[in-house]
Input
Amino acid sequence: MTAVLINGKEIAAKKRIEIAEKVKDLKKKGVTPGLAVILVGNNDASRTYVRNKEKTCQELGMNSLLIELDEDVAEDKLLDKILELNNDPAIHGILVQLPLPNHIKESKVIETISPLKDVDGFHPINIGRMMTGQDAFLPCTPYGIMVLLEETGINIEGKHVVVVGRSNIVGKPVGQLFLNQNATVTYCHSRTKDLKLHTKQADIVVAAVGIANFITADHIKEGAVVIDVGINRNEAGKLCGDVKFDEVSEKAGYITPVPKGVGPMTITMLMYNTLKSASQSLDR
Output
């Protein structure tokens, strides 16, 4: 069999149209969603991500504010800037682009962002609310994965999901989101013994390990749904995921490509979270 392609670019485009319409409605009520992005240093990849976020904000009718700080900025100065944005009524979402320089403690930065403006969904309060099934800002990549499956019509309830990877950004939260929708979840990682034993039992495999072409056809059962979160470069320098696409796509039932799979959904859900925050500001 040949897998059905889950086209994240098309689904993201559809969601962005919906977001843009809701932004127009919110503007009629006197609120324009505003996203502030803090960029520390001059990391080329980070700068590219930030440019994409600014561009998407403009396309959807949102305001964007970019704050650039030097690589050697004092941690206290960064925290003061976050506190200033917490108190700015025109800003509804605050994002500090990761990674940060070694002298700045990432957890301290995340915890300083107001949970009400934590559109990345990384604050411990939002993580805790997600864990207990309460309303929260959900981490953007895991949230995007759930929307991809929903839009594709893939039922999650009762399915066995195997997550390969345990990062705080993707692996851990995406497993919880599946659990919240009544899936049975197995977490695997670099120290899992006999990985294939686990992945071959999965109805849905989420590959978020960060190793090019790590998941092969031998890892999955016939007809499984395969979600590839990886963004890597192969030996030829070509962009690829954690899944060996050519061979796995011949065995899977559904599969996300790299690029144009999970990636476009991450920024889309960031915009959704910013819109949600702006909407909630009307009630405060």
The mean pLDDT is 96. Residues 139-263 form a domain with the Rossmann fold fold (CATH 3.40.50.720).
